[in-house]
Amino acid sequence: MDLAALIRTIPDFPKPGIQFRDVTTLLLDPHGFGQTVARLSAQAPAGIDLVAGIEARGFVFASAIARELGRGLLLIRKDGKLPGATVGVDYALEYGTDRIEMHADACVPGQRVWLIDDLIATGGTASAAVRLIREAGGVVAGAGFVIDLSDLGGAARLLNDGVPVATLVAFAGY
Ligand code: AMP
């Protein structure tokens, strides 16, 4: 099954020059969604305790993968959304900064976490999530993405940081 064919590309969203890779069309296809979850789950690192998803599209895939693998789900959220005591990491965007947070007690130190998001581009978001999980005492066993914008080097950046990367579909360019 060709998963790339189920991902819609919307040019110039959210700004000129960006080719937005829209996974909502993939999610609408039950076989496509099922295959995505099955194929990523098959690449899970050995011995993971938790699957972590990055808000918001990462939640969709991470939750299904966590169920597939029979593991708990750790939510990595945008600033100010979580009710309990949090740990957070600020990271640079093209203009300005952003912040992601998780509950400070969401993982027991030493637990092995598999990080999931829909797409990796520059790797800035995923690298921040890696720092966050490590700050909370978790071990990042790897990271998985449906889409790799391979020209942007995010997967290489994570590998360089000691995080093995699994991806399903690669697109060239932005
Ligand atoms: P980055 O931090 O540069 O790796 O960007 C990854 C995050 O931004 C992911 O959470 C993606 O959902 C989103 N993203 C970046 N570029 C795109 C794109 N071309 N199409 C869809 N989502 C994108």
CATH top-level class: Alpha Beta
Structural class: alpha/beta
Q: Helix-strand pattern, N to C? A: EEHHEHEEEEHEHE
Shape: globular
For the biggest sheet, the summary is:
7 strands, mixed
State the helicity in percent bands: 25-40%
> What count of helical segments does DSSP give?
5
What do the pLDDT scores average to? 97
Quote the distance from N terminus to C terminus.
24 Å
Bound molecules: adenosine monophosphate
Number of E-state strands? 9
Tell me the domain tally.
1
Provide a descriptive summary of the structure in words.
With 174 residues, the chain is α/β, with parallel strands linked by helices. The protein has one domain: Rossmann fold. The protein is 28% helix and 35% strand. The protein contains five helices and nine strands, in the order ββααβαββββαβαβ. The chain has helices at residues 24-28, 30-41, 57-69, 124-135, 154-160; strands at 8-11, 19-22, 50-54, 72-78, 86-92, 97-103, 112-120, 139-149, 165-171. The strands form two sheets. It has a seven-stranded mixed β-sheet with strand order 5-6-4-3-7-8-9, with helices on both faces. A hairpin with a 4-residue loop joins strand 5 (86-92) and strand 6. Helix 2 crosses helix 3 (57-69). The radius of gyration is 15 Å and the shape is globular. The model has no long low-confidence stretch (mean pLDDT 97). The structure holds adenosine monophosphate. Adenosine monophosphate (AMP) binds next to strand 2, strand 7 and helix 4.
